[in-house]
Automatic annotation (TrEMBL):
PANTHER family documented for this protein: BIFUNCTIONAL GLUTAMINE SYNTHETASE ADENYLYLTRANSFERASE_ADENYLYL-REMOVING ENZYME, GLUTAMINE SYNTHETASE ADENYLYLTRANSFERASE
Annotated spans, Adenylyl transferase: 507-1007
EC number: 2.7.7.89, 2.7.7.42
Protein's UniProt name: Bifunctional glutamine synthetase adenylyltransferase/adenylyl-removing enzyme
Source taxonomy: Bacteria, Bacillati, Actinomycetota, Actinomycetes, Mycobacteriales
Cofactor: Mg(2+)
SUPFAM superfamilies tied to this protein: Nucleotidyltransferase (SSF81301), Nucleotidyltransferase substrate binding subunit/domain (SSF81593)
Reactions accelerated catalytically: [glutamine synthetase]-L-tyrosine + ATP = [glutamine synthetase]-O(4)-(5'-adenylyl)-L-tyrosine + diphosphate; [glutamine synthetase]-O(4)-(5'-adenylyl)-L-tyrosine + phosphate = [glutamine synthetase]-L-tyrosine + ADP
Top-rank lineage group of the source organism: Bacteria
Domain Glutamate-ammonia ligase adenylyltransferase repeated: 157-324, 600-840
Amino acid sequence: MVRPPTARSAVPGVGRLGLLEPTAAASLRELGWDNVDGIPVLWSLSRAPDADLALNTLMRLRESFDDDGAGWRELDAAVRAEPALRGRLFALIGSSTAFADHLVADPPGWKLLRRKDLPDGDELRDDLLAVVNAEPEQGPNASPMLFRAGISGPEVVALLRKRYRDHLMLLAALDLAATVENEPVLPYQEVGVHLTELADAALTAALAVAVARVFENEPVPVRLAVIAMGKCGARELNYVSDVDVVFVAEPADASAARLAAEMMSVGSSAFFDVDAALRPEGKAGALVRTLDSHLTYYQRWARTWEFQALLKNRPMTGDMDLGWEYRAAVMPMVWTASEREDFVTDTRAMRRRVEDLVPAEMRERELKLGHGSLRDVEFAVQLLQLVHGRVDEKLHVPGTVEALGALAAGGYIGRDDAANLNASYEFLRLLEHRLQLQRLRRTHTLPAADDEEGLRWLARAAHMRPDGSHNAVGVLNSEIRRNTVRVRRLHAKLFYRPLLESVVRLEPDAVRLSPDAAIRQLAALGYVSPVHAIDHLKALTGGVSRKGRIQALLLPTLLEWLGDTPNPDAGLLAYRRVSEGLTDQTWFLRELRDEGAVAQRLMIVLGSSEYLPDLLINAPETIRMYADGPKGPLLLTPKAEDVARGIMTAARRYEDPKRAVAAARSLRRHELARVASADILGMLDVPSVCRALSAVWVAVLEASLAAVIRASEAQRGEPAPADFAVIGMGRLGGMELGYGSDADVLFVCDPRPGHDETAAVKWAIGIADQVQRLLGAPSTDPPLLVDAGLRPEGRNGALVRTLAAYEAYYAQWAQSWEVQALLRAHQVAGDQELGVRFLHMIDAVRYPAGGVSPEAVFEIRRIKARMDAERLPRGANPATHTKLGRGGLADIEWTVQLTQLRHAHEVPGLHNTSTLQSLAVIEETKLLDSEDVSLLRDAWLTATKARNALVLVRGKPTDQLPGPGQQLSAVARVAGWPTDDGSEFLDHYMRVTRRAKAVVERVFGES
């Protein structure tokens, strides 16, 4: 313990006392504390959280006495003679500007600080009722807890506020005193209980005033119970909190509503905000309800969060018998809330909404709602109470600390984890209390990192002193980091460590969850098949191998991340499959252990997608790319040209086309896994995904074609008889492929000089056929289907034609739909020069001089109308079919292509195979209004994103969005929708496409 200097010591300078203001020395002389006799006082002053604030307040106090100095002399003598008083006073006025002002306004109030103990709840109530001369309500129906005030005029608010602040000041002084003198530290729970008792007393007084105002001298005709909720209900109030209440009345008539409203008005004016927003239907609902009305609402309409709020309900004042009837009636519904169908969805959505309330830049400073915050502890504890309280009455406690103890005693969380979490919770609540005491404002935000003075004050107010290596601010920052990190870490262990203990013994003396409790807990965490999940956990942690032990250490955190994904069950199964598939890869578990970003991203991917697990098993190196590099995520590092070069290089190593194609497939697998992972993790936008998928398709086509031609030349012993090119059509030609897209192509050849045309074409057909068969061979990878169905005469026509044959056909026989299809034709593989010649040849067909004929436009409209009527699959919903539905991809692309056919002859920018780029040109040249183009672009991006998300979630190509349910929510999450509400995503999709459809109909309806 640090002791003050002896009397022989020199009086310390103001700097050593922590006094920074230039006038400090003069103030000390004026007070007479600058001599040896004043050393104990100065020493205490130096230990005040803000010594300058304390000294300035003392100077103001000295001036505020109006009794010729007698009052100040009495205070000065007391400060010199009573160390306990000195400690409370200096700590109080050095911590709180609000209480400094309170004392200056009422100088004799310092004498209240001489009290060494706190009044109990009855004394608080009687004292506040005495302020308004309240007496028990009289009459045949009088409630023993209902009072009528003798003073109820406008002056009552000031009287009650003054007395309430007096009691609050005494508590704050006793709570802070240990910062200055060696006074006992008030336990956090004792502070919270006293604040709650003070709130109960305050609202009892407010209700007494309300009774007098509403009913004057008449008997009270209603029974009104005031139910405390939230922190007040749990007896863990802050210094400055809203007090959440719910009103129960018999009868719930206009007079009951007026009584409740008047009580809230008095309470909010005199004490603190009284908030009834937790009542049924919130602020839109009736202020008072009967008990039966409450029960009807909770039985029929209440959401999960409302039952979670009811965990902390407590009758606080008014008709207490009615209040206890209310509690007895609602609590059975609370303990069965975890059986509700929407329990998991609601609890997740509620937690995410809370997190979203805090701006990202404030989350590290936010004590209540940030990461590793008070709400993390409270939310986790309440969720576990709801899950296991149905079968364990020992968990039926309202307070967070009591609930932590009960959960540990029951084996639902580890004892050490509960103790550590409790310590961090109390530390964060201590900081919250200190921050609120400063100005008596409701705040939960730490001072900014560059606010050295604010941090220094907070550190000293929270009993922190310099240690050997840090000043007080350094100690504070270190403790904040340590406790928030501990809360984050334990938040995962709180749910999942006991689950792991139930299948593998991690600690010899740990209390294990019973099988039924483990199943309940997994179900509450979002696992639809908890029995299967336990089997997976046993398989992952089984045996005595080192890998099993590492898995057991990793899984609490991994399971937490999985629990926040759309499909935790599938994610856990996928993780088991990936782990078993990589059992020989020593780097895998090490990477998950050492790289938190890798582990978290892997869980998000596995719990979101059925498309990726097989790819990752077969391309495990992709998992290493989940890490962050010096310039950002490694998933974004590869460039398209580097990927294409790698595929070509790998395929060229093999003479056998099958092996060459297998090598190209392998690199394609890696690239698909990379792109899909980055897409799910929100790192790539829609155009980037489409370009990347198209580029890898082109590279595989190029590598496969080259391998087949090389093998053919080697077999023939001479060069190929013809040049050969692959023309991309559709989305491949526009470089806008999705995960489920086939590669639409045309094959074109041109016999080389000296070779027979018939033989050359026959050779080219063999090449094209072999490329299709090799790429379309069965595989666990996503399919590689090469579709030449857009060739002349469709599937009845020749697979390959010469350049001259194509030219002759298009000149004489080309139909409107074929001309339209050519708008997206682009050279993608094979002989580049031949491909370019083909494109120049078809330019005259697809961009005719003078524009497309009215007859051709009419035919396009006819085909479009027929397609709308006939091509939609049976049973498909036209509002949510991403390709052929209203305002879907086909609508947008046909609209763009009709505009190209009409105007490309005069707008060179429309000689473009990309839908998005063509839309940009259409907007720039004002062929359509900017608003219309914006609607079309938005619909194309939305539909493409949704279509890609469908494939990622389901693992196979599909175009139809599902109805409301888990799969739709998963699609919404993968598509980047900010909430778990799939219905909101579906509404957004239909709104966007409906607006686009109106534009489509207008464009196609023009003459």
